[in-house]
Amino acid sequence: MSKSKTKTDPLQIIVDEGNTIKFYGAKNKNGLFSNFYISPIKLKGKIWQTTEHYFQAQKFAGTVKEEQVRNASGPGIAFRLGRKKSNDYPLRSDWLKVKDDVMYEAIKAKFTQHDNLKKILLSTKNHKLIEHTKRDAYWGDGGDGKGKNMLGILLMKLRKELSEEIKKEEK
């Protein structure tokens, strides 16, 4: 068990107290679960450098800004572009209704298109996955455990779905 925040191999899984796996940032412990972790995905006939690129771009689906976000040089820039709304490129009207589905679509692509990442996700078994950050109380735990942790919840949902698919294939 480790509580340190030192940078480590993002593919190495470190279990924290309470049988949890906490993550935040692509280069930190358990970094592969971060949307900033570089693992290109193919969705909508296009290559996206990270799940963050895809997620942020979908806020502006069908506009020039979608491509600007997709072509961002890194996930941090994609994040910042996705946060900038303007009169020319307003946030899509259904965003609040679809954002969880968009995130799930992105992480499903990430963990099904990269066998090594899929194996690691499945290896977490029944550990609770937590995006541990005070910067986000919706996708993360808010830093104090009181946040919604939607990214962790969606990762655990995907893990369960993939595990059930494997069990069906084994029968």
From TrEMBL:
User: Which superkingdom is the protein from?
Assistant: Eukaryota
NADAR domain mapped to chain residues? 23-162
Q: Which Pfam families match?
A: NADAR (PF08719)
Name-wise, this protein is Swarming motility protein ybiA
The organism named in the record is Tetrahymena thermophila (strain SB210)
